[in-house]
UniProtKB/TrEMBL annotation:
Residues 216-288, 372-447 form the Potassium channel domain. The keyword Ion transport applies. The chain crosses the membrane at residues 41-71, 92-113, 119-145, 166-189, 209-227, 239-255, 267-289, 362-383, 395-412, 424-444. GO terms for molecular function: outward rectifier potassium channel activity; potassium ion leak channel activity. This is Voltage-gated potassium channel. GO terms for cellular component: plasma membrane. It is found in: Membrane. Residues 507-517 have a biased composition (Acidic residues). It is a multi-pass membrane protein. Pfam families: Ion_trans_2 (PF07885). Residues 623-632, 695-707, 715-729 have a biased composition (Basic and acidic residues). Residues 490-524, 540-561, 613-632, 695-729 are annotated as: Disordered. The lineage of its organism: Eukaryota, Fungi, Dikarya, Ascomycota, Pezizomycotina. One of its GO terms (biological process) is stabilization of membrane potential.
Length: 729
């Protein structure tokens, strides 16, 4: 579909540029609040400038086409309006048409200067709005004068004369000018009411799309001018030819290069043009599928979070994540230990993320499908009307032509020949072809992915059963079907979740005290954190030829200050973990950490998941006054209580989990190094002290020694018994 695979490189380049560009003091807060506020104001602040910057140049492109050719023609006997002979326009029409184009060019110039950051928005915006409105109103006046019989603009007899393509290009330009100028007023109203900053700036990707659109349109017009001179076509026919050529629709005769020079120039012109439209489509995909996806995902996540929190039923002990997923919890939150409650919140937030992501993907598919169908059906209706007089098309024939053009198949058996059909075809294809590309990408995220999974599943239950046998796979399928929508308690197997918000199978009988301690989340979490610290420190402190406890004892007997040792180990672990997390930044999709990882990182940052004083219950509704705290958790600057299902949750942040953790680790490391350099004392102990690690290691070594001694005793006993048996034989 004319996409040379440029969406991902463009997105990466734009992201790198935006990271190195200074942002305004309120820009981050404004972007954070975009998805918390009603979507119409997000559309006004972000979508409208993008639409205006893209369709404004298209309107100017149509204005140029309306000026370069007379608006009237005489139809030869037995001919069609496409074969008409042009009649020179009156001077007043040419003058007003030219003035309209000047206003439009001034408005577009202000738009370009604003994109280049050479003209402030509060100055550029009035120029853009007034310029486009003036151009639109002038063209509307000209169209009305040319259409009225009383003005004498159209000579008699009416059936022997026709309005040319330039007249219909003027109609398209007038409509586009008024639409984009009206949308810009909507943006101004939102800024005046304080829904967003008046001095907002577009992203690099948005400005890139605008500049690429302008470049493609200029390339199309210049190419049409060259081929018009070579092939002796009318200029607007050459524009029509350049459009279906560069969009790879290829309608064919009669507009094909006949001269050797024209055929030779087609090679470089088509290649460069296809690459140009490919860049435009790549930018559209980058904005809609990636930037738009991020905005939509954040909005859907917040809505799903609010809905889930409101669905908690304390009487029935249920919580509803979606229409078909309702979880029962056997233990109320106020009776759970803090680590139990926090882990359940985390797992629920993961379910909310999954549900919001699925919802967002299908909504995006629905929107792009609706847009494509609307363009197809409405386009067919317009072509049915425009080609009714000359070609007697039925609606089905118009539908067939619209489909082959929309999908860039372009058989060439049908094509518009009327003066009204060709300008509409140019506008329609510029909008419809990129829209279909976006639809195909959305289908890849949903339907095609589902089809691929279905094929893999079919293989596992037939000829490619994989690790399990075919009848076992079928048995699992039928059991899942008959189980219906009932929640499987083992759905969260593999995590050490206790009873709480999420379901869990009940154990028969009382577990021994030692086993209960092992299953306690606080005990498990503490041991995992100590083990992870010990792994890092062991590489630096422990003698490989000794046990870990004896080696640590020997190094601990040195005259090193305990606080200095703890600080050294803490900085060492921070550095090593930061290096590991940095390797996750390039993963796509971004890495998602489990609860044990998050508990370790938060402990490393000085936040204890077992400390209830640092936590709170989630709010069921967004508080716009706290929008700047989105995803910040307890950032260390001031103590903030937060919930995994709340607005401050790190899972609600606008950056990936790896980026969030890397930023916090680097900030904490910088603070520690700055404190050491300036000789300041620590306000409190490090998150994990050397004594804690030594105690844990000694316990493990003691258990290993006991196991080793027991194993050795059993081996000696077996050896003696074997000797006795041989002697007896």
């Amino acid at each position: 579909m004319n996409d040379p695979g440029t969406a991902e490189p463009i997105s990466e380049i734009a992201a790198d540029i935006e990271k190195n560009m200074p942002s305004g003091p309120n820009q981050d807060t404004e972007e954070i609040m975009n998805f918390l506020k009603p979507s119409r104001w997000w559309f006004a602040s972000t979508g409208v400038p993008l639409i205006a910057g893209t369709f404004g140049p298209i309107a100017s492109f149509f204005s140029i086409c309306a000026l370069v050719q007379p608006w009237r023609s005489t139809i030869p006997p037995g001919g069609t309006e496409a074969q008409g002979v042009d009649i020179k326009d009156p001077h007043w029409l040419i003058a007003v048409n030219a003035i309209s184009l000047v206003f439009a060019l001034i408005a577009n110039g202000a738009l370009l200067l604003n994109m280049a950051r050479r003209l402030a928005l509060h100055i550029a915006q009035p120029i853009i709005i007034v310029g486009w409105f003036m151009s639109g109103f002038m063209l509307i006046g000209l169209v009305a004068a040319a259409s009225a019989r009383s003005t004498g603009f159209r000579p008699n007899p009416p059936e022997a004369h026709a309005l040319t393509q330039a007249f219909y290009y003027a109609i398209g330009a007038a409509g586009l000018y008024c639409i984009v100028a009206g949308l810009m007023i909507f943006t101004v109203v939102g800024a005046v009411k304080g829904h967003y900053e008046k001095e907002f700036t577009l992203t690099t990707a948005q400005r890139t799309l605008m500049l690429q659109t302008i470049g493609f349109l200029m390339y199309l017009l210049l190419g049409a001018l060259v081929f018009k001179s070579i092939e002796k076509w009318k200029y607007l026919d050459a524009v029509f030819w350049a459009d279906f050529t560069l969009l790879t629709i290829g309608l064919g005769a009669p507009l094909t290069p006949k001269t050797a020079l024209g055929q030779a120039l087609l090679f470089p012109y088509a290649i460069a043009g296809i690459l140009s439209i490919g860049l435009v489509i790549g930018s559209v995909r980058s904005l809609v599928l990636q930037r738009g996806k991020e905005k939509m995902a954040a909005r859907f996540l917040e809505k799903q979070r609010e809905k889930t929190v409101r669905s908690i039923d304390t009487e029935k002990n249920t919580i509803k994540v979606s229409w078909f997923k309702k979880y029962h919890f056997q233990e109320k939150a106020d009776t759970m230990s803090e680590p139990r409650r926090r882990e359940q919140e985390f797992l629920l937030m993961r379910k909310i993320e999954e549900q919001a992501e699925n919802h967002q993907r299908w909504i995006a598919l629905l929107v792009s499908t609706s847009a494509t169908l609307a363009l197809w059906l409405v386009g067919a209706a317009v072509f049915y009307v425009t080609e009714q007089f000359d070609q007697k098309w039925t609606y089905f024939q118009a539908l067939y032509f619209s489909f082959t053009s929309l999908t860039t198949i372009g058989y060439g058996d049908y094509e518009p020949v009327s003066n009204s059909g060709k300008p509409f075809f140019v506008l329609w294809t510029i909008i419809a072809v990129p829209t279909l590309t976006v639809l195909i990408s959305h289908m890849g995220d949903t339907i095609i992915r589902g089809f691929t999974d279905a094929v893999i599943w079919a293989g596992t239950v037939t000829i490619l059963p994989g690790e399990s046998r075919a009848h076992e796979s079928l048995q699992r399928v039928f059991s899942s079907i008959f189980r219906g929508l009932k929640v499987n308690p083992k759905e969260f197997a593999g995590t050490n979740q206790p009873p709480g918000f999420l379901p869990r199978e009940d154990n028969d009988g009382d577990a021994p005290e030692e086993e209960a301690e092992k299953g306690d989340p606080h005990h498990v979490m503490r041991n995992q954190i100590l083990d992870r610290f010990a792994e890092h420190i062991a590489d630096n402190e422990v003698d490989k030829n000794k046990s870990r406890s004896s080696s640590l004892d020997s190094t601990d007997s040195n005259n090193m200050d305990p606080d200095a040792r703890d600080t050294f180990n803490y900085v060492y672990v921070l550095t090593r973990e930061l290096v590991i997390v940095m390797t996750h930044l390039t993963e796509s999709p971004g890495k998602k950490y489990d609860y044990q990882d998050w508990a370790f990182f938060l402990k490393l940052l000085g936040q204890d998941e077992a400390d209830a004083s640092l936590h709170r219950n989630p709010n069921s509704k967004s508080d716009l006054s706290r929008a700047h705290e989105l995803g910040k958790a307890d950032d260390g600057e001031e103590t903030r209580v937060w919930s995994w299902m709340g607005l401050r949750s790190p899972l609600m942040a606008r950056v990936s989990e790896s980026q969030w953790i890397a930023d916090r680790l680097s900030k904490k490391l910088e603070q520690e190094l700055d404190r050491i350099r300036n000789g300041r004392k620590r306000d409190g102990p490090v998150p994990v002290t050397y004594a804690d690690i030594l105690k844990k290691v000694k316990q493990e070594d003691g258990k290993e020694n006991g196991t080793r001694k027991s194993t050795s005793s059993h081996a000696e006993l077996d050896k003696v018994n074997n000797q006795k048996e041989k002697k007896h034989q």
